[in-house]
Amino acid sequence: MNAVVFEHVKVAELPEDWRRQLAIPADARVTVRIEAEADAAAAASGDDLLFGMWRDRQDMADVSAYIRRIRASRFNRDDSDDKP
Fold this sequence. Notes:
Blueprint: E1 3-10, H1 16-22, E2 29-35, H2 40-44, H3 63-71
């Protein structure tokens, strides 16, 4: 993705709507980065391959039980920390 970056821009030179949202002095300088937004239709269709990458893991079907199991080795039976 290509981006346009403007560095050291005076806040006073930004559009009024942006200045209101920033709430910093007009003489302050900022960096503005402008990128194209991802296509909303592509994002909604589930094209992100990382989202749900563990959904087929049978050992993680019950997330709470899985977390308790992997954390169990760090604690004693009385829930105190193993480390001194």
